[in-house]
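Re: weekly structure request thread

Next one in the queue (109 aa):
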Amino acid sequence: MATDVGQLFEALADPTRRQVVQLLREGPLRAGEIADSAGMSGPAMSRHLRVLLQAGIVADERVPEDARVRVFRLRPDSIVAIRAWLDQLQAQWDDQLGSFKRHVERGTK
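Done, posted below.
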């Protein structure tokens, strides 16, 4: 799984891949179902799914009855790196804004 938030953001920058994530929020889907829902060809969707797999955002499993069929599901743990990065960014902004507020308050007294 990718821990580089850059790779995660890059994977999610594409609107089609964000649509795939939205579709998979409802539960696991076969690759063909995802392609049909997104209104695109299997090969085109396969390229998007490959990027999401490499970024660790989705996982795939083979269906035991038919090894040709792949079912995709979200990997919620992939969002942990993004959340941690955003939390760190928020903390830095909070510190800066707090410091600015104290500076302004000192200047008005």
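The chain has a mean pLDDT of 88. The first helix runs from residue 5 to 12.
Next request, please.
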